Amino acid sequence: MQKHKSAEKRDRQNQKRQLRNTIQRSSMKTAIKKVRTAATKEAAAQEMKQVVPLLDQLAAKRIIHKNKAANLKSKLTHFVNAMK
User: Fold this and answer.
1) How far apart are CA 13 and CA 24, in angstroms?
2) Radius of gyration of the chain (CA)
3) Segments in 37-65 forming alpha helices (H)
């Protein structure tokens, strides 16, 4: 149990942020899975157009590291380009 009001408030804020970050990470993973499970190259490219800004946004908010976002975009781009 917290002894100070400021510590209680900080705990509440951290819980809200943790929930928000978890939701955003989950949506990122879902979007990546949509690209990987796309049936055609055109469908995968269409999904990539939604994933790339999402990754950039999460990196800007520091939910994921900017290099992780770059690595994911690179891997997905290679995956889509290799599709037939």
Assistant:
1) 17
2) 17
3) 41-60
Please name each of the domains of the chain with its CATH number: 5-82 (1.20.58.110)
Q: What is the pTM of this model?
A: 0.86
Q: How many residues does the chain have?
A: 84
CA distance 67 to 7: 33
CB atoms < 10 A from the CB of 76, how many?
A: 20
Question: At CA 76, angle to CA 72 and CA 78, rounded to 5?
Answer: 120
- Of all residues in the chain, what percent carry a pLDDT higher than 90? 95
pLDDT digit string (tens) for 26-47?
Answer: 999 999 999 999 999 999 999 9
